[in-house]
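REQUEST FORM: STRUCTURE PREDICTION
Request ID: SP-0412
Submitted by: Lab K.M.
Chain count: 1
Length (residues): 334
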Amino acid sequence: MPPKIVEVIENGVCTACGACEAACPLNAVHVDLEAQRRDPDNLTYYVHGAACEVCEDCLTCSRVCPVVDGFPEDEFDNVRSFRGGKSELPGQDGAVVSAILKSLFEQGEIDCAVGVRRDENWGVEPFILTKASDVDLSRGTKYTSVPVLAQLKEAMKKYSKIAVVGVPCQAHGAALMRDTMTDKIVLVIGILCMESFTDEALCGNIIPNIMGLDVKKVVKMDFGGGKFWAYTRNGNGEEPEPHSVAIKEVAPLARNPCHHCLDYTSYYADLSIGSVGAPDGWNSIIVRNEIGEKYLNKVKGIEYVDDPKPGMFLIKKLADQKHKNNAPKEGEAH
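STATUS: Completed
RESULT:
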């Protein structure tokens, strides 16, 4: 019997998180960075031309697949605390994720982290961070998905205290890996996420065609106030110029698995972090378990505020909206 992720692939809901590639003991799975999909009948998407031809039905891939594992019934039943936070570091909103990683690296609490970096054209790739200065390469939100967890295969060979930063499906996959196969993942930081895009959709269509912008001039992207925002540098030293388009115009272009996802807040992470629910220039921080609390208490350089505004109600509102949009209709499988 083939692993259950074959059904995930065949139904087009594979999130391309990369967990199966990292976990497969036979190196039978490779998540293609460009195509961001897997096809059991196309051997070019697998290292060594392996794929199902050498699969030994160990089902390791199924045990770490977030889609196979399913979605939480209540995204907020494991919230231990909620607060706002910001640091002095440059970055998206309060730059809390950067502050956490830098502080933990400096204290020796982590010796590796897996995340995403981008180039000047907003091309993104997953990479392994091994020191505090590497955090500067990963700052800011990209909105383009890549198989972050695939980097864990190499990371687990060399490092013993690994942090993972990712969107809900990636945080879920990392948590499953920690639960079923390794104790080297010490911290999972999840990002609040409504949807993400392929590079082709975001940088090849939304930015140049729908918004009419030169992607090389874009310095920041964001969602807020019912709009997708792109900020461009103007060359005269002033604040970047904002440009926006209604979310309803770009949301249909999100990756297919995002249209089936029922996790907005990275339920399976130790810490969930985003901008929604906090004031401008701050991040919202959701502590979800003892691990998250333990490591956050170690971090230096973050200013906190209790009960930030607009507050948790807005996070719950957007989570409800995502569930409403993506929940299977009556009679449909999910």
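NOTES: The first strand starts at residue 81 and ends at 86.
Reviewed by: T.R.
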